[in-house]
């Protein structure tokens, strides 16, 4: 059972990102403040849920949260400032979008940069421990999936509808065969070896 808060009595926002390990596309983050009496038996780390459950929970979270927001850092920003900094930037942008200023922020993972003057704490595997982080993980994941499904229409040969930009064998094989798209992260190792001498 997930915990409702790390610090009771404070307006607490949970933050998480999706798409950090992908070879293509932007990184998405979400911030969620849940009401103190929020309950949902199904709510969990987005990776432990199937697609149907994630989208069903997204509707519930968006309807019942005190407020929520999604932030994005582009693949160009990822190449420029690296994926860790871009993930944190996306989380800051999500926090910027909240209609209520949190008094405390809890973040999935072990790295974060201070947001304004709000106290924050990182929680390793936090999306499996706290409701607000789990909710943020679901929003970040589903909004990023929507985005990758759209890109798939433009570049169907990379299988993004299925792999969402992650480094699957089929995705790497497609990069070797077709080269890179304008959405690929050029600072990443896009193929394990580079026999074609691609400029990637």
What does this structure look like?
This protein is α/β, with parallel strands linked by helices. The protein has one domain (12-153): Nucleotidyltransferase, domain 5, CATH 3.30.420. It has helices at residues 51-64, 75-81, 83-96, 131-154, 160-163, 169-178; strands at 12-18, 27-33, 67-73, 104-108, 119-123. Strands 3-2-1-4-5 form a 5-stranded mixed sheet. The N and C termini lie far apart (44 Å). Residues 194-200 have low confidence and may be disordered.
Compact summary:
The chain is of the alpha/beta class and 200 residues long. It contains 6 helices and 5 strands.
Largest beta sheet, briefly? 5 strands, mixed
Provide the β-strand percentage band.
15-25%
Low-confidence stretches: 194-200
Class from helix and strand fractions: alpha/beta
CATH fold call: Nucleotidyltransferase, domain 5
Radius of gyration: 17 Å
Please, how many domains? 1
CATH architecture: 2-Layer Sandwich
CATH C-level name: Alpha Beta
Count the strands?
A: 5
- Give the N-to-C terminal Cα separation: 44 Å
Order of helices and strands: EEHEHHEEHHH
The coarse silhouette is globular
Contiguous helical run count: 6
Helix content: 25-40%
Order of the strands making up the biggest sheet: 3-2-1-4-5
- Report mean pLDDT, rounded to a whole number: 94
CATH superfamily: Ribonuclease H-like superfamily/Ribonuclease H
